[in-house]
Amino acid sequence: MSQHIFFSPEVDFPLPFKRQALALTYAEWPTAFSGPPNDDEPLNAPEREPHCIAWIENGEVLSYTGVQFITLSHDGKQYRAAGISGMLTAPQARHRGLGLKVLRKAAQLMQSQAADISVFTCDPPLAVFYAAGGWEVLGNTPLIGGSRERPMRSDDFGKLSLIRCFTDHGESIRPNLDGQAIWLDLGERQLW
Ligand SMILES: CC(C)(COP(=O)(O)OP(=O)(O)OC[C@H]1O[C@@H](n2cnc3c(N)ncnc32)[C@H](O)[C@@H]1OP(=O)(O)O)[C@@H](O)C(=O)NCCC(=O)NCCS
């Protein structure tokens, strides 16, 4: 059996892998699409330096995540921040450790791309999964996506915030977190 992890900027993600990642994403979150996705549909927001990571077995994408980057402003400082977007494993391949392989590669990629921190959200049961990958739950600190006019607070959706710091500058955000929401300024209806 051939198996390997593949990662690249989204623009270089081979079309057969992209098609499979889109199909898996559509099967998991159909309401995020207006209809079955076509080849031109991006997996991630093109303006956020999107990268794709996939675990491939015999040419089949079995686990996938997107990684995106933004500049985040918090309490007067700016941070290069990375998010996980659309993490999933094909239903028939779950609980084989493939998601964790992809997640750990995502952390390496974030570091290699000079991220100070990584912040994103998850449903509470998945905190165990992300903790195993190296993230920690940020209690009392919601992330705010959407726009300034139409903010989307993660705790309004029952989501937990996750954080990981990669640099000393990233670590310096910690004293300014408790109770202060982090604005991501991602744009209308987006929370990574
Ligand atoms: C979350 C997801 C990506 C995990 O992928 P996976 O390849 O099955 O994960 P792993 O096999 O690497 O899991 C490692 C450990 O994380 C934890 N874990 C994984 N999935 C979990 C889940 N759904 N609930 C709670 N804990 C989970 C378990 O401790 C697991 O170890 P175990 O299999 O020995 O119990 C997968 O369940 C999935 O695609 N879910 C649907 C989409 C989704 O919700 N994505 C997350 C968006 S934030």
TrEMBL record:
PROSITE patterns: GNAT. Gene3D superfamilies: 3.40.630.30. Its EC number is 2.3.1.-. Keywords: Acyltransferase, Transferase. Residues 11-153 form the N-acetyltransferase domain. InterPro entries: Acyl_CoA_acyltransferase, GNAT_dom. The keyword Acyltransferase applies. It is an enzyme of class 2 (transferase). GO terms for molecular function: acyltransferase activity. It comes from the Bacteria. The keyword Ion transport does not apply. This is GNAT family N-acetyltransferase. It comes from Parachitinimonas caeni.
